[in-house]
């Protein structure tokens, strides 16, 4: 983990930058996912941290 979300790794992801559906911040990296499988939505790092911190 960690480095896998940076640099060359994200170049292979289509539309990786956008507005986070959770915090509505524009132009963030949406390379983290919320939810399982194909129902997952792309979210930003901050929201991913919030969800998984508990
Ligand atoms: Zn967010």
Topology:
Blueprint: H1 8-11, E1 17-18, E2 28-29, E3 32-34, E4 41-43, H2 45-53
Antiparallel strand pairs: 1-2, 3-4
Note the run of SSEs as H and E.
HEEEEH
Which sequence of strands runs across the widest sheet?
A: 1-2
How much is the average pLDDT?
84
Number of domains: 1
The helix-and-strand class reads: alpha+beta
What helical percentage do the residues reach? 10-25%
Shape: globular
Number of strand elements: 4
Count of helical segments? Answer: 2
Termini separation comes to 19 Å
Radius of gyration: 11 Å
What are the low-pLDDT stretches, counting only 5+ consecutive residues below 50? none
Strand percentage? 15-25%
Listed once per kind, the bound small molecules are:
zinc ion
Could you give a short account of the major beta sheet?
Answer: 2 strands, antiparallel
